[in-house]
Request: fold
Amino acid sequence: MANVITCYKWVIDEKDIRINPDRTVDMSRAQRKISEYDKNAIEAGIRIANRLGARPVGLTFGGPEAKQSLKDALSRGLEAVYWVGHPFAAAADGMVTARVLAAAVQKIGDYNVIVCAEGAGDTYARQVGPRLGALLDLPVITAVCEVEVDGQYLVATRKLEDYVEKVKVSMPAVICVLPEICEAPVPTLKAVLAAGKKPAQELTPQFLGLEEADLAPGISVTGVLGYVMNRKNIILKDGDVAARVKELVAYLKKEGVI
Amino acid sequence: MRYPLSEEHLLIQQTAREFAERYVKPEASAVDRAGAHPQELVRRMAEHDFLGLPFPQECGGAEAGFLSFVLAIEQIARASASVAAIPVNHFIASYTLYRWGSAEVKEQLLPVLCRGEKLGAFAFYEPGAAPGSGDRRLVATRTPAGYVLNGTKYFVPNGGVADLYVVVAQTDPERGQAGFSAFVLDGNTPGMRIARRVETMGLNGCQVAEIVFEGVEVSAGRLVGPENGAASMIREMLAMRRIAGGAMVAGIMDAALEESVKYAGQRVQFGRPIGRFPAIRKMIADMAANLNLLRLAVYSTADLVDKGEPFEAEAAMVHMFAGRTGQAACIDAIQIHGGYGYSQELPVERFFRDVKGALVYDSIMEQPEQVVAGGLMG
Amino acid sequence: MGGTFVVYSDKPQLVLELIGFCTGAGRKAVALAFDAAVAEECAAKGADKVLFFNSGINLPEAYCQQVAEAITGEGAEGFIVGSTVRGREMAAKVAALLNWPLASDVSRVVAGGGELEIERLTYGGAVVQQEKVRLPAVVTVPPGKFEPSSKPKAGAEVVALSAEPDGRYTLLERTRIERQGADLANADKIVCAGMGFAKKEDLKLAFDLAAVLGAEVACTRSVAEERKWLPPDVYVGISGATVKPRLYLTLGVSGQVQHIVGARDSGLIVAVDVNENAPIFSAADYGIVGDLYEVVPTLIDALKNA
Reply:
């Protein structure tokens, strides 16, 4: 049976990130989760697979911690999940990630659609999907908000800045979906329990025929700082409303915006 | 916290949290204010298997065990303890049938409870000091076809909204505590009437009712467990209720801690966030430490249940510890929030009202200190 | 330093900004164009060379192979692309074909010899990441980061290329998005409504204030997506619009990072909210702590008389 492969990323939950007063970033106590946008992508993949009579499977590339994501992904309705585990994943850029995923996709084989979210919740670089398509020499549609199957073709509606486009491509193809493609349901607890019985397979980079050089990124992170707004922070809270408003209007005049 | 949680437990916990954040939390304040039964949320909990979680698959459950159940309850309670109270009380009724029901009762009633097609309630308290002692005590008298019930049950959680009631009635006044039996009744049994709703301080979304029984005929097949055998059943259920109550308290404490940390980091006084002040830091540290210990106690005691080991003394300890630390944490949370904490603009005042409700179910027959000391000294 | 950067964007204004960046970095700018008028404009406003794909094209993404070949043909060490839906897709595919790294949506980029130093936002805008990108590389740059180039360079030429598109793509329809709400991208002033409004009808206060200020009305994600009080194209935030007005005035907005990231480049940020501990105040230049239902009518009167 043909596969519909949805790629997902196991990311740090941004809610748990602490920015210290000196702008250093503390992620030591942060939990991880499947990137929110990827949850929508997984559901989209399942729906497409249902329409095609195909098997929805998941694929992730991550460090040892990503192993914890497998049952989570399976509980969301995928029938199997593949995990390329390597400690290098933490330093991987889009180039390395797309290379690894492309090798894994070829190893999984017999695919007709590859679904990616438009971007990941941590880096939001929005490059892995189209990059993967180019490496596999498949047509790619990005920014997809609706998708239909038409025989051997996918017809997708994509949202650009000023236009909506309807694009038709032959399968196999890669689509990069926006979260509005479909809601991602919370799994039922029976689905959570059933996830443990579904197949999860680790694919090592060696098994995929990747060498160390293939895992070397072209981009290195040299600094990580918490974002701080440098604003005047003049907050008016004393006096009656009229007085506060009067003061604000005076400031706005001084700033030249009224 | 991992121990004694398996990967499966962690995923149950995480999924319950996702459920609670998505569906329960946005409704929490409205459920509390309206004080109405959150029908739609109960339907969703049923759909997501919360209502039959610990029971075997052949009974219509998810067969996840009791520890999974309390993990799920903690996460729901973290969003709304009112909403969490409903499946807890439903569980107590379901568990009674699962553990002591006849094959026929189990086959007929347990699957519909597990699937959440019907909601369960457990009726134990009476207007008098202890069941079987007041003028309006509920008495079951033998008839040729079974029993006839007369009297009143007071403080029945899920009362009025439940479809099935497990009711404890006195069957032999001569035998004291050994004279009670349990029955399972449909909510629409003739002669059974919801006399009024009991207004409560907290857990406002969980309906509490007074139920009057007037010549209610019950067939012998609806007796659950042996005649005059309810006392040991009650003891066991009460112990499980205490563990689940401890999970509710842990959920409330977690929410109180989260709100407090957030507020203490934002609220500036004397030029720095109040979270930098030692007095505030001590309160936060106490909350976090007690929450961690309570969780350990709740999870490990639930694990005893799953392993089939004795757990009544440990459950009583959970109750004692949850009572002390839960209330202290919620009072501290209000203190940290200053005037806002007292106001209904923020949820912390609700935590305080709810935490009391999570632990109020108790019995003079089985005070937790008595259970613990009795186990040690007889 | 020398060296060549190839630039592309489907937004003509953005191409000029990218040419401005190349010139500032001491690089030769070779612009790609799929439209004759754009090709001429690039040549007239600072590109060193323009490659014009004369193809009657409807999907530039269907020419990635040819674009990659052209970049190789120019001996370029960088492909600098405007960060739009089309641009990002082109950038990523070309990066894959050339086997180059790609730095996406950079908020700052400085070109050194052999490498680029960039900054970009991660974790929904909470974290700024500094990165070194070894050249050759692809970079996508959002609008408004560089001064557009305007003066012609000596010897600028337009070279026409013919190319066959990737036949696997068919464009069935292209519809211009009818904006239901304001054009926020170009707004000079914006009033943003948050969850502090109790009812949809009360948004009239925001519109009244906007009318007095000459501002457009925007909102937070919750107001558009959860309550559906305003169309989804007017919500500001990481997954919504990014705006850069001279004045951004929020009413009843608590100021979650995912919202603020969409407005953080505004000239002046002013907040009105009842909760003095709301994070919006640490993101604001000026703020009034107060009930917006009292503050806004007073503010409207004061502005009328100002």
